[in-house]
Specification:
- The chain is mainly beta.
- It has a domain of 35 residues.
- The chain has 1 helix and 4 strands, in the order ββαββ.
- The protein has a two-stranded antiparallel ribbon with strand order 1-2. A two-stranded antiparallel sheet has the order 3-4.
- β1 and β2 form a beta hairpin.
- The radius of gyration is 15 Å and the shape is globular.
- The two termini are 22 Å apart.
- 0% of the residues are buried.
Amino acid sequence: MNTTSIMSAGEIAPSVRTLKIEAGGDAWKGTIKPKIRLMGRWLERAGFKPDTRVTVRCLAPGIIELRSGDGSTC
């Protein structure tokens, strides 16, 4: 899923990931909607901890901003 090469221990992961937009919903009912799933240790290293809330803002078509709710930064 990501485009990074194998890294040695202690090396910092790149901040760019390539993800696939999935189809979510019910195809039978015709309620398919785009869905993005984010998961991995890289999220924690980027300041996103489990059980915290995030804000998502659409800045322009095709551009979204994701911010951790606890105010931490990279």
